[in-house]
Amino acid sequence: MSGRYRLTSVETVENEGTWLFTVRDERDEDVEVLLVPCEDDEGGAVEAWVNSCTHEAQPLYREGVGAAVREGAVVCPKHGSMFDTCSGYCDNGPAAETTLPSVEISVEDGQVYLTDGDVRFLRAGPSEDDDDDDGPSSTSHLRL
Ligand code: FES
Q1: Is the dihedral of CA 133, 97, 72, 112 positive or negative?
Q2: Is 138 among the domain residues?
Q3: What CATH number corresponds to the domain at position 74?
Q4: Residue 55: inside a domain, yes or no?
Q5: If you measure from the C-alpha of residue 5 to the centroid of ligand 1, how many angstroms do you get, rounded to a whole number?
Q6: Cα 101 to ligand 1 centroid, rounded to whole Å
Q7: Pocket residues for ligand 1 (CB within 6 Å)?
Q8: Sheet bearing 89-90, strands edge to edge
Q9: 80 CA distance to ligand 1 centroid (A)?
């Protein structure tokens, strides 16, 4: 664990619906991560999930469009599977019975901090090394 990095505020995530940032993982690959509001019984505020559907590695958050969050779930724009914002679990559609990889964060005094010692904060917003949508470009996955 190498300390923590302030990402944004809970209020910003709630107001914008989602908040995207990019980290570099242990294999030196860029990984996009999505912050989403989570309202569970314990009053959780925000969770962080890797921005990649577990079905076909499609981004859940697209630049200029954002991510669709409906009824406490992130909706995959390609085939419509819905992932619980609090658990990352999907029980429907082609991605059923899978869970989005998570990145460790903490919330303190209304602020969201990256606390995952396996990744390093790169920037707010999307990865800059995305190729075109098609072709066998490298796909990044965190193995947690
Ligand atoms: S790519 Fe997300 S459900 Fe198929």
Answers
A1: negative
A2: no
A3: 2.102.10.10
A4: yes
A5: 31
A6: 15
A7: 53, 55-56, 58, 76, 78-79, 81, 93-95
A8: 68-70, 73-75, 82-84, 89-90, 98-99
A9: 6
Q: How far apart are CA 12 and CA 14, in angstroms?
A: 5
Task: Walk along the chain (144 residues) and give the pLDDT tens digit of each residue.
Answer: 457 999 999 999 999 999 999 999 999 999 999 999 997 766 568 999 999 999 999 999 998 888 999 999 999 999 999 999 999 999 999 999 999 999 999 999 999 999 999 999 999 999 986 544 444 444 455 555
Would residue 129 count as lying in a domain? no
Residue 26 belongs to what domain range? 5-122
Query: For residue 143, is it within any domain?
Result: no
pTM of this prediction?
Answer: 0.86
Q: In the chain, how many domains are there?
A: 1
Which residue's entry shows tokens 């030196």?
A: 28
